[in-house]
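call fold(seq) -> tokens
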Amino acid sequence: MKGGWKKSLLMVVSVLMIIGVTVLLGGIFRTISTEEGRIAFRRIILDLGVPGFFMLIGLNVSQIFLFFFPGEMVELLAGMCYGTFGGLIVTYIGVFISACIIFLLVRKVGKASIYGLIGKEKVEKIEKSRLYNSKKAESFLLLLFILPGTPKDLLLYIGALLPVNAPRFILLSTLFRFPAIITSTVAGKSFAAGDNRTAIVVYIVTAVISLIILWYASKKDAVREIMEINKD
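ret:
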């Protein structure tokens, strides 16, 4: 009983925090969904100086935790504010913090802690998938994280459920997101400089390469199974 009320209180607080952050992010994402909005938000971030740097990291962490918001917009904004490699650093810090929080949440609090975010049925399907008990889980996670276009924020939750230890999970979920992140930050820097052509070319090249690799990856049964689970 003593532990029961604490868990209930934790769940209530978590739900209220999720609702509050969702409402806040909803307004921010409506703003940065347009080019004019991103330019205005960039000005705010840069005018704030160091606090703006941490504000963008916080936005990134919040977006990853609530994965149903598109992460590419934050990565694009990071590139617009701090350039290709500055944006890369901002995004990587956010990804690292998020990966640590999600891993600890799932492993320490329990899988029930994420039922509200990804659904109990989806968690059960992941546990029954061939990837869950596969010795090749790390290889498949590496492939899915390195591919631009895959649902990487959702994959953090999926990866935390799989038999992968903490250091390897953090490495896979951060380092191997490089292709997707660098694509967005390069495009963001180009947009900020008014060079829309370069940004469009970057996205087209990335899309072509991604489609080729995705076609190959779709032949792998475990990868295809996880991708199907994500569609449900």
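The chain has one domain: 2-231.
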